[in-house]
Amino acid sequence: MSLPDITKHVGELACQKDSYLKSIVTKVVRCEKVVPAATNGKKKKGAAPESEKKDAWEVELLDTVIFPEGGGQLHDTGSLTPTIPDATAVHVSNCQRRLLSCIHTTSAPLDPSTEVRVNVDWPRRFDNMQQHSGQHLVSAVLDLPPYQLETLSWGMNATEAYVEIGRKLSEEELQALEDRCNELIREDLKVVVHTSNRVDDQGNLPADYDPEKGTVRVVCIGDLDRNPCCGTHVSKTSQLNAISILYTTPSRGLNTKINFVVGDRVRRTAKQSVGRLRKLGNKLSSQIDEITDKVDKLMDDKKDTEKREKTWRQLAARFEAEKARAALASHGKAFIHASEGGIPHLSEIAAEIGEARDTGVVLLVCGDDTNENDGGPVMVTGEESKVKELAAEVQKALPDVRGGGKARWQGKVGKWWPGDVEKLRKLVEGDAHDDNHHEAGDQTQKRLDKPSKSKMQPRFCIFHDAIVPFTLDP
């Protein structure tokens, strides 16, 4: 059987004339290798490395059952197989409209005039049809009383779809919307596609689609809705099975997006959601209906823990600051190392040291160098000229440190290596760390032994998760 050599334009494709057609035989009109776009040396976020990128080709056919992305609907995928014995199928990963042409992205080249069988990935296609027809139904109901809300935009992805409207709906309005859509699904309304020459049907066409050379298609749902659309649709509302509104999200200005699923996605979403809830319930040792209360209690416990942690961190900061002040008083410089806490903890220690650092210099380090670990912050604070000098020594000792500042220099170590912290300690304390440590300890003990003017000295002691005040009688 000979095939006509007239290329069908978008609007007259086989997939648009019959959404349920899964396969046709046609010919290759054009095939060109895809030339990667110039990146100017900049790598796009999430892009595959150059070594992993595969060659691709753009193929144009006389006709196709693979729908090109458009009208908010995702593109189809499928395959092209030459009609010769033992031919290998060529995968179609993408399909896009270019003006009036339909362009297939393939994994291998095909010679022009080659006869091929085009097969569409039917599960993906039917899912797209359900979501798209479902969107028409949701928008049609929103357009009528009591809502009378225009659909400003819509979209879909692999898991859900949305329509954007001009205001937020109440929970009662959302439930009524879902109920009405499902009533119309059960009414089994016919979904019919017509072609149109009416000027008012051309208002929503893409700017690069020429209606005089192309074809304007209008989708009708019974007497309920009439809307220009290039997509593929179910033949009656009963094939949507069900619509479930999942949640809403705020959008531009006062606009709201209503997120929903249609058809087989309702079943899959319900199954996945219950599965996740059961797993979460098992982790929390609770039934599904108890999860919310259990999480509320965990959040309250977390807040209490954070409060206690803040108190402990403040006490630790005061203790470290006291050691630093003693070192500054005797040597004019001090070294502080904290294994955790980050910049907030180092800043808290620096604040506690106070004016004692104004004529000296303090090096504060946070991280664990006992093994090869992720890096951490480094801070140098004090008199500006001394800060500049010590910061330069820090960068010389650890070349990968990056930072800046004057009276307070702040940097970050990309990765801690064993011995790094000791290198920084020696910049301040030299090789006499042990002697200095004992001397600072003796000074601290003398201050503890020195009688106070008050009769009692308040102290704090930390026992696991409690902070207990007590006093020492001098």
Automatic annotation (TrEMBL):
Cofactor: Zn(2+)
GO-annotated molecular function: aminoacyl-tRNA ligase activity; ATP binding; metal ion binding; Ser-tRNA(Ala) deacylase activity
SMART domains referenced in this protein's UniProt entry, alphabetically: tRNA_SAD
Keywords assigned by UniProt, alphabetized: Metal-binding, Zinc
Single biological process term from Gene Ontology: tRNA aminoacylation
PANTHER family reported in the protein's UniProt record: ALANYL-TRNA EDITING PROTEIN, ALANYL-TRNA EDITING PROTEIN AARSD1
Protein name, as recorded: Threonyl/alanyl tRNA synthetase SAD domain-containing protein
Organism listed in the record: Saitoella complicata (strain BCRC 22490 / CBS 7301 / JCM 7358 / NBRC 10748 / NRRL Y-17804)
